[in-house]
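Good day; I would like, with your permission, to put a structural problem before you. A protein sequence and the structure tokens that stand for its backbone fold form the material at issue. I would ask you to consider whether the tokens describe a fold that such a sequence might reasonably adopt. I set the record out below, with my sincere thanks for your time.
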Amino acid sequence: MSKTFQKLKAIRGMNDILPAESFKWQQLEAQITQLLSLYGYSNIRTPILESTRLFARGIGEVTDIVEKEMYTFSMSPDKQNIDDMLTMRPEFTAGIVRAAIEHNITYDRPQRLYTMGPVFRHERPQKGRYRQFHQLSVEALGFSGADTDAELIIMLKRLWQQLGLEDIRLELNSLGQPEERLAHRAALIAYFEQHKEQLDEDAQRRLYSNPLRILDTKNPNMQTLANQAPKLFDFLGQASKAHFAEVCRRLEQAGISYTLNPRLVRGLDYYNLTVFEWVTDRLGAQGTVCGGGRYDGLCELLGGKATPAAGFGLGLERLLALLEQKESEQLNSECDVYFVHQGQAASELAAQLAEQCRDQGVRAIVHAGTSSFKSQFKRADQSGAQWAAILGESEVNEGSISLKPLRADKNGNISSQLSVPQAQLVTTLTEHLA
């Protein structure tokens, strides 16, 4: 008798997405794709496996990603030869730039590109941080102006609005140019050397390799020290300050509020000038939803011609977690409006009005069969609908319909019951559901 095969499970930190959840992914991906098309972005797809040299060169050999978070494999017995090493992509930008250089796609004109898919980090899995996770990466290659930086941020604000997410705030900083960062780096090292006894193990390891990352410490015992460190902005030249001022001006024109965060840095070496993050307090320690900025030096670093560029990466798992928190009732609801009715004429009219709602994208359910108003309202509440549309004999005769709110709106407010003409039902619902 053969041994019973031991049941296998998915690798820890690499999760199955089952049918009950995958429709949410499809909805989100469709909304993102539609939004990006409005701004002229085209899809690009790069391999999961790339040469390890790409990430060591592009991301930086002293970053956490390269030092300890990559899945790397050898193609030969000589594991010391980096030319024979392959890595499962830990992020998208370096691979997209590699493809742009290889296929010379920015030769004729700049390119607006995006991709979505899995990326991989070899770290301890925890809520919001997985070994295989999914990112949206948006890259504008060949654009040098502050207008592009601002447009990327404005585009993200539009996405938050479309998704009904309001508790995401923008933090902004400028990293200046490489020579300005070098001067700041020297000042940082000198400052932290004076307070070396206060540095934790991670900060001491980074002191001479990547001191800028010490400013991003999450250690509460080092916050005061980090806050009092030399500010990069004090080392910026006039051109860098003018670029940043133009970004801020355009955001203010668009009505987007932001917080200047001098400690905001990027963990990747190729960023310069504008850096930004969209953050929230509703995801615990993993509060960064999206991060990005300008990386004008990456193309040249990877062997291409000097090409200005800017972009961002957005974690889809974190975005879905926010949606589930903010809109759990809407995501799980069967409809937006539930029709309750009494009498044959009301039943037939409810069916006609429900079709008008569906024509405009308002999800509608008409109570099937005949039962008391009490039982119909109970079913309406179970459906997760925002509104109950009530049709009785008086409403049929008067040409009106009553709308009763069943739950608070996205701002936490509960509307009063309304009576509107039947011809205005769809308009009223779309206004209140927006």
The first helix runs from residue 19 to 38. Residues 38 and 201 are 47 Å apart (CA to CA). The chain has a mean pLDDT of 87. The two ends are 64 Å apart (CA to CA).
